[in-house]
């Protein structure tokens, strides 16, 4: 059995205050994982003064207007978030036990960051405090059955009984309804109301602990069929649909309405002469799709 997590005794807020510069920004309604990602972006900005990188060159060659560079950048930062949190959890499991004096885990985490990164000491201290907050929410116990049902009702009242990812109606089958962490719990997502949404079983399992669109395997999403082909729905599998909805943050790309209010999203191409691939696919609502087709027919 796993040892009790000491971090649980402190609130996220207490831990964040320790990190210099975070006292003014700290807020209970923010995911520690998100704070870690924002901080990494600050430490490693997308703009560098080293001139064109290989990825900027590919972006330029494929006329991606910066979208490919941004995608690779976001995906890499997500990798760093996952790597730091999971490495810290690995060290915690190893050093936070009766075999080691109290505080060994944080010491080990500090020496790991000092030897394996080139960040400055004050930044390393900030990273340590944010990571502790991430592990604190990650290792929080599951809610009681009662609290879970209460949450379900509360979210249902606020957003309606629709899966926030695919828009499927959840009203009929009670068993189908899952409470989903929008920012994954394992990667520093809070279990408080602001980070919870309702989803269907299959979207919940496809989404797993992916953070956002750039976190899925976007490089796999390159179809060889067209919408009019029989194989299209087979090729655009469930995981890809979830990834493409995540790309627009579960909103219609055009009217920006969230899935719970605009219903099921459908997928369209930006450039109809190009194939169906991650950068060329947008998720839009039925309403926007209809007005698009109307205006196209009107022009034609
Ligand atoms: Zn769903
Ligand atoms: Zn729309």
Automatic annotation (TrEMBL):
TM regions (residue ranges): none
Taxonomy, superkingdom: Bacteria
HNH nuclease domain segment(s): 150-205
Name used for this protein in its record: HNH nuclease domain-containing protein
């Amino acid at each position: 059995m796993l040892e009790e997590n000491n971090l649980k005794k402190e609130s996220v807020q207490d831990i964040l205050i320790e990190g210099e510069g975070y006292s003014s920004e700290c807020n209970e309604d923010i995911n520690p994982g998100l704070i870690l990602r924002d901080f990494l972006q600050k430490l490693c900005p997308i703009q560098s003064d080293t001139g064109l990188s290989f990825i900027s060159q590919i972006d330029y060659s494929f006329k991606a207007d910066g979208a490919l560079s941004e995608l690779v950048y976001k995906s890499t930062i997500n990798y760093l978030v996952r790597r730091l949190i999971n490495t810290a959890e690995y060290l915690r499991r190893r050093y936070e036990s009766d075999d080691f004096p109290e505080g060994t885990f944080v010491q080990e985490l500090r020496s790991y960051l000092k030897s394996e990164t080139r960040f400055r000491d004050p930044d390393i201290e900030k990273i340590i405090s944010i990571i502790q907050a991430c592990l604190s929410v990650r290792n929080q116990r599951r809610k009681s059955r009662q609290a879970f049902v209460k949450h379900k009702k509360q979210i249902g009242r606020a957003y309606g009984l629709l899966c926030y990812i695919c828009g499927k109606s959840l009203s009929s089958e009670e068993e189908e309804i899952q409470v989903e962490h929008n920012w994954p719990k394992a990667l520093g997502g809070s279990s408080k109301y602001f980070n919870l949404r309702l989803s269907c079983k299959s979207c919940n399992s496809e989404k797993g602990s992916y953070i956002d669109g750039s976190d899925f395997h976007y490089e796999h999403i390159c179809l060889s069929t067209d919408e009019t082909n029989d194989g299209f729905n087979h090729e655009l599998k469930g995981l890809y649909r979830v990834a493409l909805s995540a790309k627009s943050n579960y909103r219609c790309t055009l009217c920006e309405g969230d899935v719970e209010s605009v219903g099921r999203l459908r997928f369209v191409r930006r450039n109809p002469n190009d194939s169906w691939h991650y950068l060329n696919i947008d998720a839009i609502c039925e309403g926007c799709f209809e007005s698009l087709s109307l205006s196209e027919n009107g022009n034609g």
